[in-house]
Design goal:
Blueprint (H helix, E strand, L loop, with lengths): L1 H10 L2 H22 L13 H28 L2 H33 L7 H22 L3 H15 L2 H11 L9 E2 L2 E2 L3 H46 L1
Antiparallel strand pairs: 1-2
Helix pairs in contact: 2-8, 3-4, 3-6, 3-8, 4-5, 4-8, 5-6, 5-7
Length: about 240
């Protein structure tokens, strides 16, 4: 299948993804935590932005990969793509959780609360619930075909939350700061933008690396389970 061959080609370069992810993340952490100046209003606490924002963006990328893979699976019924979707959901849960925790740590000194029912926060928490629901649905179903189809449909329906997350700061009154990069221009200083870009690229590459490794693990696990099933049927 085309998608399987594409994933197989990418796998040849997975160590390069890990290497460059490490380089970009190291450079981003140095620039963000050491070289860049503290914010005029927020002081040193602003440095958590260099962790929070890239993980939040990584979570959105992970769900976008899950959405695209789910569409492809329903069209082509490629089992490897289903493995990729499952892997993407698991990594998405990790990235979304880190983004929510770091966002809460950032909110306490700036908003004086750990959590508030802000549209951006709520829609992002909903994203986490959708991803958890996706994996729970897979665990409840035994039939591999139904498991892949039903979870793909859930992922496609859940994609409606992504534009809500992205534009929530534009559509509603919110405590969360507006988009730093939009059609209105760039509203962030260069000495803060460059560490953010480096961290974001590093997280994207790390996501790609983790996705390839986890997809391989799930594929091998599926093969092993299929062989075990055949052996048991031969015995009985």
């Amino acid at each position: 299948m085309l998608a399987s061959r594409f994933i197989g080609k990418l796998r040849q370069f997975q160590n390069w993804f890990a290497l460059f992810a490490g380089l970009f993340l190291t450079a981003g952490l140095y620039m963000g935590l050491v070289a860049s100046p503290p914010d005029y209003y927020q002081g040193e606490i602003v440095r958590i932005m260099y962790i929070h924002v890239p993980f939040a963006q990584g979570a959105m990328v992970a769900y976008t990969a899950l959405f695209g893979g789910s569409l492809w699976y329903l069209w082509k019924r490629d089992a490897v793509v289903d493995n990729m979707c499952q892997a993407s959901a698991g990594i998405g849960i990790l990235f979304t959780t880190v983004a929510l925790i770091t966002g809460s740590i950032w909110a306490k000194p700036t908003w004086n609360v750990w959590w508030t029912w802000d549209p951006r926060l709520v829609s992002f928490a909903v994203l986490l619930l959708i991803l958890i629901g996706y994996l729970m649905l897979r665990s409840f179903l035994d039939d591999p075909g139904k498991k892949a189809r039903y979870s793909a449909v859930l992922a496609i329906v859940g994609f409606v939350d992504l534009p809500i997350v992205h534009y929530s700061v534009e559509w509603w009154r919110t405590l969360h700061q507006p988009l730093s990069i939009s059609t209105r221009g760039i509203s962030i200083a260069a000495n803060m933008l460059y560490p953010l870009i480096s961290m974001s690229i590093g997280l994207y590459l790390l996501f790609a690396y983790m996705l390839m490794v986890r997809t391989q693990m799930l594929y091998l696990q599926q093969l092993l389970e299929a062989k075990q099933g055949r052996l048991l049927s031969d015995i009985h």
